[in-house]
Task: inverse folding
C-alpha cells in the first residue's frame, strides 16, 4: 500500500499534487480541534477586521475569526462528504452485487428502483425534504437522504461487473463447493469490485459536498453548524462583498476550490492506476 | 470390479423457450456407463459432442436450462448407494470434496484472481473437512509437497503462478480431501506437452496413492492413450463405443472410432488421412436413428430408422452399431 502511494507520487504529477492539497485540507481539519473559539460563538471579537497578524484571515461581521471558523467548517463538510460516500457505497455495493449475481426477477426489481432513483431530479427533492422536515433536518438526516439519492450510478456499474463475475469459473467452483450466495458475494466478488468503488468514492464526495454547499448557500440546511456552504450563506446575508469584507467570502471559496481539486486529482489518478491501459499510455508504451 | 459410479439411461436436455420457439437440445441422450473403483475412465469425443454436459450431469452441477429428463446417476460411497438426483441439495453438497470432486473446464481460472490462493483453499475445501484450520493447512502443506508445489505459493496470487503450476494447484485443490471419485474436464487442454506430461503423471500418481477413480474428459486421444484405463467414445450426445484403452486403439469397432483412431498421426507414416464427410449433427435436430448414419461409410437401411443399442460384444467392451453387432431386431 505504502509503496503504491510512493510510486504513484513519483510517477504521477496529478497524484502528487492531489495528495499535497489533501494534506493541506487534512492539516486544517486537524487544526480545527485546537480552535480557541467554540463553533457557534458569536460577537466574541471585533467585527469586520481585515486579515492581519492577529486574525490571519480577518473576522466576520458576526465577530468570528474566519480562519478558525474555516477549519471547523472544513471538518464538518469533509465528514459530511465521507458519511454520504460511505453510506451510498454500502447501498450501491449491496444492490449491484445482489442484482448482478441473482439476476432474473431480483435484478429487474432492483434495477427498476435503481433507474427510478437515477432519473429523479435530486435538487428539488432535497429542497422538498427540507421544507417537509424543517427543524428535524439535521446533518445526519441529510447524510441519509443524500446517500439514498447518490448510489444508483455506481450500483449499475457494480452490477455490470457482477454479471461478468457470475459466469467466471471461480464462481462456478464456489457454487459447486456449496458456498452460500452471501459468502460468494462478500468473499469472492467484493474484493474484485473494491478498486472501482474506491475510484467512485471521490466523485461521490465531490457531488455530495457540492450539493451541501448549494443547499447551505440557499439556506436550506441547518445553518447554525459551520460548514463551507453555511459560511458563504452568512457572508451573503451580511452582503460581505458590498460591505468590503471580501475575506469572509474568499476564504471559504478558496478552501472549496482546494478541496475539490484535491478530490478530483486523486480520483483521476486513481482511475488511471486502476486502468492498466492508461498507465501504459503514460509510460509511452 | 466394484463400481463406484453407475449411470443408467441418463438423458439430459437443454430446453430453451425463446421468441415463441421451443427448442430442445439433446446433449446427453440415453447414456449408461459404470466406473470401477480405482479406474481412470476416459471420455473422448469432438467439441460440442456433449462431453462436458455429460460430466456436469454426473457431477450434479447442472443449472437450468439443462435438465435431467430421465435416468439416474448413482454413487457408491462408504458402502452405501447415493442417487444424486434423489437427494436434497444439502446432502448433495455434503458429498462434494470428501467423496466427489470436480476439476472444471478452464480450471486454471477457478482460483479467484484477486485473492491469495490460501483463500481459495479455505473458501472451497475447508468447509468440507471437519477439522480446525491448523490441521487443515498442515494437510494442505503436505498435499502440496506431494504434488511438488511449495507451500509458500499459498500466499501468492494466481497470476503470479505459471499455467502449469496453476493447473497443479487446482488439481491439488480438488484432491486435498482424498475423494473417492474425481471428475476432470479437460485438465490438460491449453498446456504445452511437457507440462501436460507433468500434470498427467501427477494425476496417475494421485490415483495410485489414493485409490480414487477418475472420470477423465478430453478430446485429445494422445492424452487418453497415456492415462485412461478404459475409454468411452461420445458422438452427438450418445455413447457409441466403450473399450479398454489398448483394445480401442488396436481394434476400433465403431466406424466413428475407426476414423478417430486412424486420423491419429504416426511417426514415419506420411500417408494422407482421409477426413470424414460432413459435420457433427446439430443436437437440436439430430438425425433419426443412429446419429452417425449420415456420415457413416457402412450405413444400412436400418441405421436411418432405429437407434442402435449398446451391445456387449466382449465382456469388457460395448459398441452401438448395427454393422458391428449385426443385429437387426
Result:
Amino acid at each position: 500500500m505504502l509503496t503504491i502511494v510512493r510510486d504513484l507520487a513519483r510517477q504521477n504529477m496529478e497524484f502528487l499534487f492531489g495528495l499535497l492539497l489533501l494534506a493541506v485540507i487534512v492539516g486544517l481539519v486537524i487544526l480545527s480541534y485546537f480552535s480557541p473559539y467554540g463553533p457557534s460563538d458569536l460577537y466574541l471579537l471585533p467585527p469586520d477586521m481585515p486579515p492581519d497578524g492577529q486574525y490571519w484571515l480577518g473576522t466576520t461581521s458576526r465577530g468570528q475569526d474566519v480562519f478558525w471558523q474555516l477549519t471547523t467548517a472544513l471538518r464538518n463538510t469533509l465528514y459530511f462528504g465521507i458519511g454520504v460516500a460511505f453510506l451510498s457505497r454500502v447501498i450501491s455495493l449491496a444492490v449491484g452485487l445482489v442484482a448482478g449475481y441473482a439476476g432474473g426477477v431480483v435484478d429487474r426489481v432492483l434495477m427498476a428502483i435503481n433507474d427510478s432513483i437515477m432519473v429523479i431530479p435530486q435538487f428539488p427533492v432535497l429542497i422538498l425534504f427540507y421544507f417537509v422536515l424543517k427543524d428535524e433536518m439535521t446533518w445526519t438526516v441529510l447524510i441519509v437522504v443524500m446517500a439514498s439519492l447518490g448510489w444508483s450510478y455506481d450500483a449499475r456499474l457494480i452490477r455490470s461487473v457482477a454479471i461478468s463475475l457470475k459466469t467466471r469459473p471461480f464462481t462456478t467452483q464456489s457454487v459447486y463447493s456449496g458456498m452460500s450466495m452471501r459468502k460468494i458475494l462478500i468473499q469472492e466478488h467484493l474484493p474484485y469490485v473494491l478498486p472501482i468503488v474506491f475510484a467512485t468514492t471521490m466523485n461521490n464526495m465531490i457531488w455530495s459536498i457540492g450539493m451541501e454547499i448549494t443547499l447551505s448557500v440557499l439556506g436550506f440546511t441547518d445553518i447554525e453548524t459551520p460548514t463551507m456552504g453555511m459560511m458563504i450563506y452568512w457572508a451573503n446575508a451580511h452582503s460581505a462583498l458590498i460591505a468590503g469584507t471580501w475575506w469572509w467570502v474568499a476564504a471559504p471559496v478558496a478552501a472549496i476550490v482546494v478541496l475539490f481539486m484535491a478530490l478530483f486529482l486523486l480520483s483521476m489518478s486513481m482511475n488511471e492506476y486502476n486502468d492498466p491501459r492508461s498507465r501504459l499510455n503514460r509510460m509511452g508504451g | 470390479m466394484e463400481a463406484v459410479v453407475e449411470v443408467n439411461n441418463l438423458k439430459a436436455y437443454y430446453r430453451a423457450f425463446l421468441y415463441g420457439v421451443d427448442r430442445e437440445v439433446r446433449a446427453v441422450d440415453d447414456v449408461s456407463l459404470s466406473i470401477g473403483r480405482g479406474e481412470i475412465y476416459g471420455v473422448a469425443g469432438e467439441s460440442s459432442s456433449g462431453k462436458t454436459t455429460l460430466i456436469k450431469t454426473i457431477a450434479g452441477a447442472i443449472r437450468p436450462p439443462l435438465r435431467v429428463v430421465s435416468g439416474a446417476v448413482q454413487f457408491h460411497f462408504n458402502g452405501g448407494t447415493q442417487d444424486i438426483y434423489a437427494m436434497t441439495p444439502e446432502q448433495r453438497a455434503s458429498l462434494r470434496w470428501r467423496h466427489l470432486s470436480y476439476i472444471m473446464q478452464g480450471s486454471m481460472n477457478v482460483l479467484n484472481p484477486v485473492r491469495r490462493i490460501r483463500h481459495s483453499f479455505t473458501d472451497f475445501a475447508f468447509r468440507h473437512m471437519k477439522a480446525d484450520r491448523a490441521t487443515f493447512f498442515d494437510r494442505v502443506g503436505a498435499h502440496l509437497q506431494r504434488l511438488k508445489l511449495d507451500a509458500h505459493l499459498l500466499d501468492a496470487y494466481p497470476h503470479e503462478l505459471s499455467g502449469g503450476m496453476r493447473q497443479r494447484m487446482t488439481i491439488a485443490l480438488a484432491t486435498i480431501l482424498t475423494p473417492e471419485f474425481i471428475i476432470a474436464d479437460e485438465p490438460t487442454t491449453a498446456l504445452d506437452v511437457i507440462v501436460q506430461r507433468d500434470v498427467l503423471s501427477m494425476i496417475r500418481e494421485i490415483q495410485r496413492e489414493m485409490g480414487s477413480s477418475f472420470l477423465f474428459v478430453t478430446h485429445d486421444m494422445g492424452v487418453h492413450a497415456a492415462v485412461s484405463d478404459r475409454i468411452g467414445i461420445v458422438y452427438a450426445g450418445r455413447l457409441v463405443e466403450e473399450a479398454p484403452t489398448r483394445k480401442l486403439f488396436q481394434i476400433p469397432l465403431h466406424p466413428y472410432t475407426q476414423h478417430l483412431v486412424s486420423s491419429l498421426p504416426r511417426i514415419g507414416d506420411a500417408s494422407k488421412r482421409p477426413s470424414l464427410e460432413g459435420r457433427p449433427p446439430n443436437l437440436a435436430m439430430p438425425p433419426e436413428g443412429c446419429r452417425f448414419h449420415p456420415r457413416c461409410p457402412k450405413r444400412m437401411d436400418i441405421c436411418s430408422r432405429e437407434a442402435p443399442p449398446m451391445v456387449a460384444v466382449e465382456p469388457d467392451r460395448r459398441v452401438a452399431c448395427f454393422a458391428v453387432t449385426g443385429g437387426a431386431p
